[in-house]
Each structure stands twice: as C-alpha cells, then as structure tokens.
Amino acid sequence: MTGSLVQNIHHYCVGLSYLCAFLLEIARLLWPARGWRIAGLGFGAAGLVAHTAYLFVQQPSPAVPHGSVLLLAWVLALFYFYGTVHHAKQAWAVFVLPVVIALVALSRVLLTAAPDHAAFNFAGWASGDRFWGAVHGVLILFASVGVSVSFLASMMYLIQARRLRRKVSPGAVIPMLNLERLETMNRHSLNWAFPMLTAGLLVGTLLIPHGPSLSDNWLSVKVLSTAGLWLVFLVLLYLRYGAHVPARRLALFSVVAFTLLLVALVAAHPFADGGAK
Known about the structure:
Layout: H1 2-30, H2 34-58, H3 65-86, H4 92-113, H5 128-166, H6 179-207, H7 214-218, H8 221-243, H9 247-266
Helix pairs in contact: 1-2, 1-4, 2-3, 3-4, 3-5, 5-6, 5-9, 6-8, 8-9
C-alpha cells in the first residue's frame, strides 16, 4: 500500500511539475516577461529533481515497460532543461515538455497495468546473460533517445517548413530554430541512434535462444517492433544518403520511427523476469 502511494505521488507530482513548466512557457510566449521564464525553469527543475530521486530510490527496471518509458522521459527531461537554458530565445520547452509529460503519464498507466514487477537489481545483472541483457537494454535506451530527439526535430521542421511555405511573419508565431539547424539535429540523431540500435539488436538476438520459448521470443511484439524500427532506420539512411530525398519526407519517416519506438517500449520484454529478484 505504501509503495503504491509513493508511486502515485511520484507520477502525479512529476507530471504536474512538468505541466506547470509547460503552461508557464506558453504564458511567456503570450505575455513576454522574465518572470515567466524563471518560474517555468523552477517548476521544470523541481520535476527533474523528483524524477531523478524516484529513479534513484525505486530503481524501476528498464526491462519492463513502465521502467523503460520512465527512463526515456527522464533523459528527455534533461534534454528539455538543457535546451531551455541554452536556447533561451526559442520555444524549446513547448515542443519537448509535451512528450515528457506524455511519457510520464504512459509510465503510470503501464505501472497500473503491471504493478508487481520488482525493482531493478544491479547486482543480479552483473554477470552472465543478465549482464548482456543489461547491455542490450542500455543500448536500446540510447537508441530510443536518438529516435525521440529525431522525432522532436522532425516535428519542429515540419511546422517551420509549413510556415515558410505560407510566408508567415516570424514575429507572429512561436520562435523556433531554423530549418538548417533542425535538419542537422535530425541527421545527427539518426546517425547516432542507428549504430546503438543495431548493436542492441545484435546483443538481443544472441540472448533470445536462451529464453524459455524460442518461437514466442522471436515473435514477441517487442522483438518485431524493434526489428521494424531498425528497418525504418535503414530506409531513412538510404533515403538520406543514397536517394537524397527532401528533408520533409525524412521528417515524416522519423515520426513513423518514433511511433514504432513507443510500441517497442510498451511491449513486454522477453527477459523482464530476469532482472527481478
């Protein structure tokens, strides 16, 4: 009962902190004033501290859906906070925070659906197949960050490109990075995420035959969706470096890749029970 209460407080407090930071960023855009930015950063920092404390104390396993989603939300929250400080004149938080809030909410829903998973046991993963399972999870997490950043850059790119086609005055809309910088961010994210995803898939492939049911593991939603994500990445790289298609089409493919990523994260992991104790 106490553990459930702690988890409820965590998700609601973190989610509300990020939500307040988001609303304050919107207020800053509507009524420009320094106070809005300071207050928004304060709520964002409070959410990030609570988020970090929960991960440190509760240690949710990255091998289970709610744990992997919450870890990804934490990394993107760091990305939001750094970007908001570094790109002070851009509406960075307006695009990143909704994704962070949605991931925190999704983590809570997944935890409600499967509340009995144990915490991540670091000592239990320090050797043998469990060690390589942890390596697999870390690689997939890093790849997930790259896919998420690519998605955010792609969404901003599509919005900015539409503005330019319609010749909308920059002063009448939310300030954003220019198309060149967004395209560069998308390219770097893909170039970074693809080798991580490939290595993670290779490690996971070597581990699958050791699972309790070979056919069930190979045909699991997580394995199929992750393999599909890798194929989408392969197509993206070919379109970018081989076919040289327009950046707008690449941005649309990046959105598809993020959708597949979410499917892979929320699906049950074949090795989820291995990390529990």
